[in-house]
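User: Can you help me understand a structure? I only have the sequence.
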Amino acid sequence: MAVADRALWIIERNLARSLSLEEIASACGVSRSHLAYAFGTSTGLPVMKYLRGRRLTEAARTLVRGAPDILTVALDTGYSSHEAFTRAFKEQFATTPEAIRDRGSLEGVALVDPLAWKDTDTTVVSTPHIEKEDARVVVGLSELCSFDSVVKIPGLWQRFMTQYYAAIPAKVNEIPVGVSYAAGDEGGFQYVCGVEVTRVNGKPKELVTLELPARPYAVFEHREHISRLTETYRKIWNETLPAVGRVVADAPILERFNQGFDTRTGEGGVQLWIPLVP
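Assistant: Let's start by predicting it. Here is the structure, written out as tokens:
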């Protein structure tokens, strides 16, 4: 059973109680980062955003049925106060719990129903090789992303390469590297368009510095067009990595473009370095 499928079952089975990202990951038998990427690449949504939407949807249905006590609905939905529940409800549906209850209808409300999909992805991912990587330092342009906003990443690369790349001193080599790592419990991730360097002094002040310690990685090859990278990640997180039997570390993932990668066409391939627990 794919990791994302297990997470969906766990969420639906436990909608009536408090549930954290850590608890869902533990129940799936994977790390927080592994869960975040497996779920996000499969559904296009952060885990906790989906969980929040499902809980508030069920709360809205309870209110429409005429629940007299909104605080009780709030507590049953995992919120500690009427105010916190109302704030989240309004952010999700652009209306208040009282308005929904008084109206007695969910017409026009963007409910979040249980996800289900039939996996027709024919992407083939080969078994990775395990490689020990020395400590590295990466300098780059960083932006907070979500699995429903990955379309921003090509534009981030464009800005990095045209505005900052040439001004970075002491490059280890000329080939840039993408770095991503989980950011917070909401299931988003920080993406960095960068390059490996031997020193950081003299870098443009807008850029971040990442120090990556030595560790083992599972190295996968993505040989298809770069636009199909999400499909490869989906297969890696949900099927290939669990079969490898190694634990994914809560650490940055590296995307190393092949020597012949063509930025104009998106062809040439990229290696995906998934961090492992030693």
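Now, to help you interpret it: The radius of gyration is 21 Å. The CA atoms of residues 29 and 47 lie 15 Å apart. Let me know which part you'd like to focus on.
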